[in-house]
Amino acid sequence: MQAAAPTVQVTVTVTDTAEEETPRRFSRAELEDMACRWDFDENECACRDLLIAAFPEAVSLWSEEELAEMDTMDLLLQTGQRKPETALEMVKLLRSTAEEHLQDQEAANQLLGWDMHDLLVSDDMLTLLIEELKQDDCLPVSSSRALMWDGPRRQS
Fold first, then answer.
1. pLDDT value at position 100?
2. Closest CA to 146 of 99, 110, 100
3. Nearest to 108 by CA among 122, 120, 118, 98
4. Dihedral in degrees, nearest 10, Cα atoms 73, 70, 46, 135
5. Whose C-alpha in 1, 8, 38, 75 is 20 to 30 A from the C-alpha of 63?
């Protein structure tokens, strides 16, 4: 009697990697909560995305692709070049949302020394900033920190 030839069974699983998972979109409230908690585990661009959600008319000048390539500083600077008043409102929103974390050196350096600095020291913003300082008793603290910051900055 002859033994049956062994058989091999192969299972192949094909995964289509061409379709990337769509990034999760967060509501304005969720983005404010992330910035307020200074927790960017779910969205490392939460501050930028908060500005996009809060100022849809101002960011309508750029495509979604262009906005995705910007960081918070880029968005503030480019908005400041076109609409300085809106850029200042953006700064005030970020400052008030993350205010309790500005006592933390790392958070203050990121927000004031990196994200906001170049905008706040630009010639386009100077007159506007002086007028705002006369009206907003909270702005001087955060603005003076940004103006005195001597850390890394990008040239535009």
1. 86
2. 110
3. 98
4. 30
5. 38
Residue with tokens 């603005």, as numbered in its chain: 143
Q: How many other C-beta atoms are found inside a 10 Å radius of the C-beta of residue 48? A: 24
The Cα–Cα gap between 35 and 96 comes to: 10
User: Using CA atoms, how far apart are residues 142 and 42, in angstroms rounded to an integer?
Assistant: 26
Pull the structure tokens for residue 112.
Answer: 């004031």
Determine if the pTM surpasses 0.85.
no
- What is the per-residue pLDDT across 11-32, written as a single tens digit (0 to 9) for each? 566 666 555 666 688 999 999 9
> How far is the CA of 71 from the CAs of 10, 51, 74, 80, in angstroms?
48, 11, 5, 14
Burial class (CB in 10 A: 0-12, 13-18, 19+), 94: buried
Whole-angstrom Cα distance, residue 58 to residue 77? 12
Query: CB-based burial of residue 102 (10 Å sphere; 0-12 exposed, 13-18 middle, 19+ buried)?
Result: middle
pLDDT at 126 over 60: yes
- Rounded Cα distance between 96 and 116, Å, is 13
Structure tokens at 59: 């960011």
